[in-house]
Amino acid sequence: MDRYIRDDLADILLGIEYDDLPEDVITFTKRVILDTMACAMGGYDGPPTKIVRGYVDRYAAAGEATILCDGRKTNRVLATFANGTALRYLDHNDYCYRRDPSHASGNLAAALAVAEAEGLTGRDVILGTVVGYEMQLRLNHHCGSTWERGWASATNLAMSGAALTSKLMGLDAMQTANAIAVAGSHNNTLTESKHGNIPMLKATSEPYICKSGVEAALMAADGLTGPEQIFEGRWGWIPVIAGKADVEAFTAPMNGHYMITETCLKPYAAEMMTQSSIQAAIDVVTEHGFDPLQAKHIEARYHDFALKKPSWDPKKFNPQDRETADHSFPYCIAVSLLDRACGAAQFTDEKLKDPDVRTVMAKIELTVDDSLTALLPEKFGTAIKVTMPDGTVFEKICETPPGHPENPMSDGEIEAKFRRLSNHLMSADQMEQGIAACWEIDQYDDLGAFTQLFTV
Fold it and tell me: What range does the domain containing 76 cover?
């Protein structure tokens, strides 16, 4: 039989086994799981999360997978959608950037749902998460920029959701190749969802696409076939969606490196390229103790891509809602200078209208710094330079954003993030039990017992 890119990928992904995972990869994945569960708790009350749960309620679905916080059960597809929306809503979940930005934590929603539905273990959740990240970040690293061609990076979760579901359901190589092909054919989402006034749809993009990948695997398991040349065909995913690909790297065998270890965690509840801006702003005001309202001028220097990325446009200078504000460099810098923090409290309706925030925003100028551009794509930094009325200048540069693998959050910081995002829902004892469960997820043979700890 002829072999195609999809077949090579299926063999690679199905070849990943839990017992072969290095201990540091397992530990890193647990860190990702704890961080993502924190985001899910924090986003449970978000408007789009509530809308999606209402949508799920319309279906009398099989009770095979748990909706986090809620505790009710539905089928694995709808649980992926509901939990994925919760963990994405605050934009506090992890990310990776190479040719495109990418949020791969949506894979955990699918891994949890499918593993629970299949009666699998916590070890399988780790395995499925690793497989999902591997598929998604290979697309992210080795294919052309879908984002700049009009396709949001959430598009990549279709094939990662299909891959991890195939692995956890025990599909064979042909079924897995078809699952990837079906998912890649049906599910591509537009960059326009991140442009202008960003809609609530942003929180649903990754989970909607990922749950479609789960559906693709379910259909492939029953014999549905997809295009053989889904990637390399004349009208395939690479020429039409990505534009180009380094096929050799994309289909390279596993060599001991797992893509999940390249993901970055977020200490702040904002878009990925704002993380260094926020840190530099907090550092400069904390170190020098000036009043941002008294500043004469504030210069924020970036790499060139920050000011030409598809989601950057004039409406980010005057955000009117949470979704747009957490993608606004001026807004995030202003609240960070004023509050020395950038979390959920900085994105309330009251804060969005705060005249002090708007006063500081008006002082901010965004410029390009070639020295920061030279660090791309490995690092994406920001320099904040504040000039006071008497000519005094305060400056701070954050070249490597906090949470980056080279500047990682500590385990304690991730645990603190969980407590901060879940304390409105859980008691102190519940939070400590949830944290411990994430560190010990590989000890759980009953995933129902695990997810029950996150029911409020």
Answer: 5-262
Q: Given pLDDT bands bounded at 50, 70 and 90, which one contains residue 379?
A: confident
Summarised one tens digit per residue, pLDDT across range 3-61 is 999 999 999 999 999 999 999 999 999 999 999 999 999 999 999 999 999 999 999 88
Taking the CB of residue 189, how many other CB atoms lie within 10 A of it? 22
CATH classification of the domain holding 277: 3.30.1330.120
Distance of alpha carbon 116 from alpha carbon 450, whole angstroms: 10
Q: How far apart are CA 102 and CA 206, in angstroms?
A: 10
229 and 334 part of one domain: no
182 lies in the same domain as 63: yes
Look at residue 6 in the predicted model and tell me its pLDDT: 98
The Cα–Cα gap between 270 and 158 comes to 24
Q: Compute the Cα dihedral for 52, 55, 57, 60 and give only its sign.
A: negative
d(CA 327, CA 149) in angstroms, rounded, equals 20
Domain finish residue from 369, 398, 427: 398
**216 and 303: one domain?**
no
Pair (210, 341) in one structural domain: no
Statement to judge: residues 16 and 159 lie in one domain: yes
- Count of domains observed in the chain: 2
- In this prediction, residue 419 carries a pLDDT of 98
* Residue 140: C-alpha distances to residues 36, 134, 152 (Å): 20, 10, 11
Structural contact between residues 16 and 134, judged by C-beta atoms closer than 8 angstroms: yes
DSSP state of 344: G
| DSSP-based three-state secondary structure for 21 | coil
Q: In whole angstroms, give the CA distance from residue 166 to residue 184.
A: 14
Angstrom distance (rounded) from CA 403 to CA 409: 5
Give the CATH number for residue 185.
Answer: 1.10.4100.10
Residue ending a domain, among 398, 426, 449, is: 398
Residue bearing tokens 């309202």: 293
Looking only at the bridges linking them, the beta strands covering 382-387 and 101-102 are unpaired
Based on the fold, state whether residues 255 and 137 are members of the same structural domain.
yes
Long-range contacts of 185-189 (CB under 8 A, 24+ apart): 185/226, 185/227, 185/230, 186/158, 186/212, 186/216, 187/155, 187/158, 187/212, 187/213, 187/216, 188/146, 188/151, 188/155, 188/158, 188/241, 189/151, 189/152, 189/154, 189/155
| 247 and 291 share one domain | no
pTM for the model: 0.96
